Amino acid sequence: MSRVFAYCRVSTADQTTDNQLLEIEAAGFTVTPQRTIMETISGSVPASEREGFALLLNKLESGDVLVVSKLDRLGRNAMDVRATVEALTGMGVRVHCLALGGVDLTSAAGKMTMGVLAAVAEFERDLLVERTQAGLTRAKASGAVLGRPPALSKAQTAEAARQLAEGISVAAVARALKTSRQTVMRVRDRAEL
Questions:
Q1: 11 catalytic per annotation
Q2: Which pLDDT value is given to residue 193?
């Protein structure tokens, strides 16, 4: 009889895997706590580099079934998802994705479905990146200041440059301006002192 494992992943600590576990149970899979791997890590990190997924790989054997609620739990990059499923297939592990109707991703139909969906997901992600870049470019063109605010005002920057030019140490300037040494070193490097 096949052992059933569940892999549940969230991206941030304020999220929970509870809904994923409920979906897996509602689909009729019985997974013991020892066979449930839950981790908090970005989907952009390849599955092979995730601590929890590595632990899962050490537990899996040929004939086992791995259940995920959605394809993006395995990864957000189509190539990574495909490589992960192929590696599991090579181990003799079947992968079921509930969001795809519980299809076995290692079957011929599952491989085709997964390939199409992963390509669409990657396309959507690429579009999001393009829209974000266009928005940033538009904001810069309209004069918006992006990024962190400067640690020093213009007057403080000028004062730091003056003190550095007089030979005062970086540490002393940083203490006087109540800022970090790194900030003063950036002033020094920009002024080429």
A1: yes
A2: 64
